[in-house]
Amino acid sequence: MELITVTIDNPDGLNLILGHSHFIKTVEDVFEAMVNGVAGAKFGIAFCEASDKCLVRYTGTDPELIELAQKNAYALSAGHSFIVFMKDMFPINVLNAIKAVPEVCRIFCATANPVEVIIARTEQGRGILGVIDGFASRGIETKEDMEARKGLLRAIGYKQ
Amino acid sequence: MELITVTIDNPDGLNLILGHSHFIKTVEDVFEAMVNGVAGAKFGIAFCEASDKCLVRYTGTDPELIELAQKNAYALSAGHSFIVFMKDMFPINVLNAIKAVPEVCRIFCATANPVEVIIARTEQGRGILGVIDGFASRGIETKEDMEARKGLLRAIGYKQ
Amino acid sequence: MELITVTIDNPDGLNLILGHSHFIKTVEDVFEAMVNGVAGAKFGIAFCEASDKCLVRYTGTDPELIELAQKNAYALSAGHSFIVFMKDMFPINVLNAIKAVPEVCRIFCATANPVEVIIARTEQGRGILGVIDGFASRGIETKEDMEARKGLLRAIGYKQ
Amino acid sequence: MELITVTIDNPDGLNLILGHSHFIKTVEDVFEAMVNGVAGAKFGIAFCEASDKCLVRYTGTDPELIELAQKNAYALSAGHSFIVFMKDMFPINVLNAIKAVPEVCRIFCATANPVEVIIARTEQGRGILGVIDGFASRGIETKEDMEARKGLLRAIGYKQ
Amino acid sequence: MELITVTIDNPDGLNLILGHSHFIKTVEDVFEAMVNGVAGAKFGIAFCEASDKCLVRYTGTDPELIELAQKNAYALSAGHSFIVFMKDMFPINVLNAIKAVPEVCRIFCATANPVEVIIARTEQGRGILGVIDGFASRGIETKEDMEARKGLLRAIGYKQ
Amino acid sequence: MELITVTIDNPDGLNLILGHSHFIKTVEDVFEAMVNGVAGAKFGIAFCEASDKCLVRYTGTDPELIELAQKNAYALSAGHSFIVFMKDMFPINVLNAIKAVPEVCRIFCATANPVEVIIARTEQGRGILGVIDGFASRGIETKEDMEARKGLLRAIGYKQ
């Protein structure tokens, strides 16, 4: 077994969700979770089928995002993993719906940060061990940082 | 710290669910999630207690599946992990109920594929880092593959 | 990429929850999940912001637990990870509420055991691959162990 | 406004679920919740569209159960209500999945008892106010009744 | 006890959600469910406090929708009920998040149809018994209606 | 069919949850939801079995609260309804867990207010149509009321 690092190709810093599921139905069910959550959602999904034809299965509403999802899923080639890229919406709009898809196992990350994916590779196949999501911590927030954080969440309307 | 790979022993290619929880109550609660979900469910569960006696705790409705779960949990020996083997039913029937068990943390995989489990081993103990679930991707689906995929899900009754 | 092991500093063997999320709102939302779940909850939360200022963000109801959370989050320095330490309550009281926080991705562990966290470190940052939660298995429970387990869960009131 | 009582027509005492939703997509989404939950599920669903054509919309896997659902939904004629009849499975297998369908509002009952539905009728339309689900209470259980109840749940495998 | 019918005042046929909760925190928590679900959500919420000052509590992001919610909640005056009016979004985008708010009890309806609310009024107060949501059924769909329904859901992108 | 009003007997103004379920397993499952949610929870549950012996089934951790639940459930005698009385804890601590019990259909109210229950009574049995939960609205909050409301939620620690 060997560990490799795959960097997600995300030139425009779009939001993405990376997860693990268990069935090609994932493609249609994650699609439905996206469109139920956001009217006119723009996204692309790709899923690494892990048996039989072992194809990258895909769908979505935006050709560029579909292509981005395909390319990254194929670069990962980790059985039963899936990736969603989205535009003009946020992971928080749909993450609980995706977590509740009956064949979704777990979510590795939901982020617009640079992502490096740590993959174990064996003769059998490839599996995601974890992700490096953005950057390492540089310190602990001060009282001023805290005020700014709370202020920001209220300014952009998430909290009252 | 050392990485090892444990291959799940699953000679009949049964469906299994592998997860991480935090309490020996997991054994009874996952049992209940299984029987609530599927009348007459045939399954075996084993859970790696991570403190005190550190025993593989188990239950189920089918002696062979219980034995399979015990054997694999013991081969993993990863504190607070659990594994469920099932027959005549599918992970999709129960996965959301298991995700909602109040002490379940996360699900690594739900699959009938060959599984290799990547484990970190230290002097203290052992922990699951991830899984290789089936096989690596061999390409991207064509329009024909997509039609076949959609047709299959409708032929077996999952979609209309 | 290099693997390192960080031991959680938890001198009093308190219960903790370690997870991965995607937004600084996590700090306030996990706070609310805790206080909704347990009246008078005593806890500290810290979250590793993964972009911009990359600060350890924190809150809670108990100064010592907040400090413990800060210190451990900073030792992990894994982007978008969070840790909660709690007292006079149990992870089972709040784990489902935390899993349902709309920006929470996954939970690595919920435990009062010694925990070693396996981290991948690259030039970009740091990410959690998994945890060693307590100790490796030492055997399979006997019928007597099983009776004792079931008796215990009933004696402490979790089952009838 | 006038109150009327509609008795559910259920000659074989089948299990049924009666609820309120908000969209004709309910028909397909409840179908999917049923087939995800139970492999080979036998059921019929009918939903009272409440605007536009105001038709009883239906689907299912068993012609007799579909017809039973149609007939009862039409007898109710309460806008946005739906009813599911099932065989060889139980409401407990699918009820949480149906509660989680994104357009389902609430569940009135899930039962194999005789059901009378209390309906408010106005010039505009009809709405369900509540149900009489089985029979009124005849007393409080004794210690012997309690033992029998607990024993039954364990004998049929729901509890350990 | 007397039954009265209150017609929801909704001149533009906006989508609304009507429910029952148990705490003035409902106002802020439903607000957060809305903004988590839909970026830039336009809505107004009003909640009938049922003790102490018994005021209609409100919030939102759009003054007209807030006023509409206030007016309708006050017309209902049913303790612990709440109503949300929304624009440029759909109940399906947020209904599961609202159902999951920890103090929400149940949802009466989510609809853009005309709604009549059946209320019980006593000396003590007022309570919602149910709703007439749109219109009574006018028939059972034919095969052609069914094809049109399925086609519509696919044309507007909810199903594939 | 006749409508009657049953006033909940709750001399100490305790918090209660009133709901509708579909199976005597409700008694044990709601018990488990309560003890999972709150360590040392004090409560009593009673459930109106709706077929067979039609007994009020009950359990709990506090004899007085059990008796209160029994008495009120029997006064309601509405098939498949249940009621929980609790002390030193709040409905918000457990309501989502109870909503997620696989046989629970809906929650009528969760409140410490005076409650009147509107019941339909027929020859067959009795069913809950709705509740009057506290008192009717007396006005719309002013800006000062709003500030006081927000301040209160922050003073008692629910919001930051």
Compile the SSE list and pairings.
The structure is a homohexamer of 160-residue chains.
Chain A: E1 2-7, E2 15-21, H1 25-37, E3 42-48, E4 55-60, H2 63-76, E5 81-87, H3 91-99, E6 104-111, E7 115-121, E8 126-133, E9 139-140, H4 143-155
Antiparallel strand pairs in A: 1-7, 2-5, 2-6, 3-4, 3-5, 7-8
Helix pairs in contact in A: 1-3
Strand order of the largest sheet of chain A: 4-3-5-2-6
Low-confidence runs of at least 5 consecutive residues of chain A: none
**Distance from first to last alpha carbon of chain A:** 50 Å
- SSE ordering of chain A: EEHEEHEHEEEEH
Provide the domain count of chain A: 1
Write a brief caption for the model.
Six copies of one chain form a homohexamer. With 160 residues, chain A is an alpha+beta fold.
Structure description:
Chain A has four helices and nine strands; from the N terminus they run ββαββαβαββββα. The first copy, chain A, has one domain: Ta1353-like (hypothetical protein tt1634). The longest helix of chain A has 14 residues, at 63-76. Chain A has helices at residues 25-37, 63-76, 91-99, 143-155, and strands spanning 2-7, 15-21, 42-48, 55-60, 81-87, 104-111, 115-121, 126-133, 139-140. The mean pLDDT of chain A is 97. Chain A is 31% helix and 36% strand. In chain A, α1 packs across α3. A five-stranded antiparallel sheet of chain A has the order 4-3-5-2-6, with helices on both faces. Chains in contact: A-B, A-C, A-D, A-E, A-F, B-C, B-D, B-E, B-F, C-D, C-E, C-F, D-E, D-F, E-F. Chains A and B meet through α1, β4, α2, β6 and β8 of A and α3, β6, β8, β9 and α4 of B.
